[in-house]
């Protein structure tokens, strides 16, 4: 019997496995590691699901860690077997299939669940979220058998889902409740360019569209909008947000609010239990982008490895749309406000829009559409608080032009 302490990981997704990878770099022989995951696969990239849906990637190509990887690193993997109970007093977890595992340290990485609007008909077959390989398989199967799809939600995920279904040959209607697509990432000007691009691809994009109910007999057949109009839909994908999956944590008495509450070391109120990823809440924030989750993994791994000196601090992240042929980038405070000013470049003929938000001679936000080549550089300027006074007049033309003329580097 091993004398090493036991680390049990609940959740075989990107956050949990990134933490394990970081831990293996720091202390490869410290723990006996057991991983239990709800899905019957190795660890795959959820951010590549849109490319799996569109057919640009295969399932093998989005796999991050195959079952062989776990075996090579001495990790016991129970795939397709979610944990149903945590006994904090005895420090054990139990799975649906009856696996009972003790832990010295427990890492919860249960992620999030897609939010399904509580509308009449939302429980009909053919109404799904967009969160897993299983969801993609259902969408591909629907595309092979039915002509019409609707996607509710014009955010990042909804647009990627709509584009993927369009590429699969379906007639797709994208419904969004406001008049600005991706309003969390774009301003109105960039949204209009995106709207024109999507319409040009053959998507039926309806803005200010409020869904009131879904109808159908054996499966969903369509959507009724608040104005009484009807839209045919043999498949309805709801991409209206996610919620941290805290059911298991709550059931064992861990302190949860919107997410599992963690401190700067990603430790919960129970010193034996850590949590990372979309299931956590840190300083009142929850997380849906991959960059902060990677940093959480680094911090958590250092403490699990007993070399903990890092503290997690949320930092700004940039957003890109994963749709072939659409170049879009946003970062920072791109909406601006009191005390800010804008630098804007519009080239509608070429479909290019750039907006830089300045405050006190620093770039605080940017939206780029059509030409995102300098996105990373603008993000560096935001993060570093660079004084852009010497290059202000040339800033919109990008890093190369500014450096050629002796500006910021």
UniProtKB/TrEMBL annotation:
Domain (FAD/NAD(P)-binding) spans: 6-284
Keyword Iron-sulfur attributed: no
Return the InterPro entries for the record.
Answer: FAD-bd_OxRdtase, FAD/NAD-bd_sf, FAD/NAD-binding_dom, FAD/NAD-linked_Rdtase_dimer_sf, Rubredoxin_C
MF terms (GO), sorted A to Z: oxidoreductase activity
Q: Give the cofactors, semicolon-separated.
A: FAD
Q: Which family does it belong to?
A: Belongs to the FAD-dependent oxidoreductase family.
Name of the featured protein:
NAD(P)/FAD-dependent oxidoreductase
